[in-house]
Amino acid sequence: MTTINISLPTQLKNQADLLVSQGYYASFSDLARTALRQIISKEELNLWLKQTKDNEVKNKAAILNSDQDIDLFLK
């Protein structure tokens, strides 16, 4: 596992510490990992949405009518 150092505004650090002290997260590192995972997932979804909109504009959108269509599309 890699260790990093970050600078945070005092208020943000205090809010994070409060969540940890209330038992929502095991540690500040646990909170930071969870937050990063959520941001990465959200950005991946935003990218897929943008690609879908771009494909629709270019008339390259695929219509998926069945589970088999979905499986083939995802491969």
Description:
The chain is built from 3 helices and no strands. It has 75 residues and is mostly helical. It is elongated and about 50 Å long.
Short description:
This protein has 75 residues and is mainly α. The protein is built from three helices and no strands.
Task: Identify low-pLDDT runs.
Answer: none
How far from one another are the termini?
31 Å
**Main sheet attributes: strand count, strand direction, barrel closure:** none
Per DSSP E runs of 2 or more residues, the count of β-strands stands at: 0
Percentage of residues in strands: under 5%
Rg over alpha carbons: 20 Å
Q: What is the typical, i.e. mean, pLDDT?
A: 92
Helical percentage: 55-70%
Order of helices and strands: HHH
Structural class computed from helices and strand pairing: mainly alpha
Brief descriptors of the model:
elongated, 75 residues, mainly alpha, single chain
Set out the fold topology.
Layout: H1 10-21, H2 28-57, H3 67-74
